[in-house]
Design a protein that fits this description.
The chain contains 13 helices and seven strands. It is of the alpha/beta class and 328 residues long. The protein has a five-stranded parallel β-sheet. The chain has a two-stranded antiparallel sheet with strand order 4-5. A hairpin with a 2-residue loop joins strand 4 and strand 5. Helix 1 runs antiparallel to helix 11. It is globular, with a radius of gyration of 19 Å. The structure holds thiamine diphosphate and magnesium ion (MG). Magnesium ion binds next to strand 4.
């Protein structure tokens, strides 16, 4: 896999470090009751988020899942505004009314996380249809988990994207488990890319622990979408280090399996080795980067903690009263 230039590689590494530190910090705070409603930790899956988002333009749009901190950080939202949302504070990206599962800001190209498994691809497909109808030169990315691969609506959305040649990229953030269910046990045919090919789209199974590989495949998919060649499906195989959600015990897999992924495939360790080998940084500079990330996340926690709760008068903000058919 060809390695991006020095500036890009260091930015990719730092972005993955930010996600890891953010998640591990927020996980502990969640156990202390600071994160309203709990959260889904994405540790281990950093290369998927950073690889994809680094290949997009700022104005491209995404729709994501219940596990969305990593995608949202990689899109350029700050640790401060995301931590504040987890704490349900008014300075959070959803004004403190969404919490961990509902990070989003349509005005900044983020069509939200949500609690409905598989919904992200349908939302992203709708955004891609809008982009095509307006003649905009941008793409829409729909993130989905491996569990969402076995929901009907996912494939309805994919079929529409294929027949209309929509500028959609489907990213399976495949951490191999849907809560306690191993993907291999519930996937008919076994090969997700082949399944997508059956719908007539370009499809790839790739290493979701390798940020450079994820970035390359996404970049090529984006070029094809912009050239009017339609959607691409990318199944990025990765691994989640923690339970499905904070506090979940994880009795469906062995500690050995988790340790094996951490010690042989960790996306950050792997990319540090690449950066050192390329001579882009030395060990002291990598340590310095980690320390500056630590300070940034500590600052985000202090910011969130000192921010006010949203005022009760904002409770109906951003709800479309027309859709509900009621006067708010
Ligand atoms: C339509 C729907 N069915 C079931 C659930 C319950 N549920 C929440 S998360 C989850 C597993 C999702 O697994 P996956 O898509 O692999 O995403 P991951 O949690 O691994 O990121 C399930 C079944 C739900 N939220 N929505
Ligand atoms: Mg999964």
């Amino acid at each position: 896999m060809s390695v991006p230039d020095k500036k890009t590689s260091l930015a990719l590494l730092r972005s993955m470090m930010v996600i890891r530190d953010f998640e591990e910090t927020a996980d502990k705070l969640s156990l202390r009751g600071k994160v309203s409603g709990g959260m889904h930790n994405s540790s281990g899956q950093e290369a998927v988020a950073v690889g994809v988002l680094s290949a997009l333009a700022e104005f491209d749009v995404i729709a994501t899942t219940h596990r969305s901190h990593h995608h949202t950080l990689a899109k350029g939202f700050t640790p401060r505004e995301i931590m504040a949302e987890l704490f349900t504070r008014s300075t959070g990206i959803s004004g403190g009314r969404g919490a961990s599962m509902h990070l989003g800001d349509v005005t900044r190209g983020h069509f939200g996380g949500n609690g409905i498994v598989g919904a992200g691809v349908g939302i992203a497909m709708g955004a891609a249809l809008g982009i095509q109808q307006k003649g905009d030169k941008k793409v829409s990315v729909g993130f989905i988990g491996d569990g969402g691969m076995n929901t009907g609506r996912t494939w309805e959305a994919i079929n529409m994207a294929v027949i209309y040649k929509l500028p959609l990229i489907v990213i399976v953030d495949n951490n191999q488990y849907a809560v306690e269910t191993f993907v291999g046990r519930v996937t008919g045919g076994g090969d997700l890319a082949k399944r997508a090919e059956g719908f007539g789209m370009r499809a790839f199974n790739i290493d979701g622990m390798d940020v450079a590989e994820v970035r390359k495949y996404t970049s090529e998919a984006r070029e094809r979408a912009l050239a009017g060649e339609g959607p691409t499906f990318i199944n990025a195989v990765t691994y989640r280090y923690y339970g499905h959600n904070v506090g979940e015990k994880g009795q469906y897999r062995t500690q050995e399996e988790i340790e094996r992924w951490k010690s042989t495939k960790d996306p950050i360790d792997h990319f540090i080795a690449v950066v050192l080998e390329q001579g882009y940084a030395n060990q002291a500079e990598v340590d310095e980067m980690r320390a500056s990330v630590r300070a940034e996340i500590e600052d985000a926690v202090a910011f969130a903690d000192s921010s006010p709760e949203p005022d009760i008068s904002t409770i109906y903000d951003d709800i479309d009263s027309g859709m509900l058919g009621v006067q708010l």
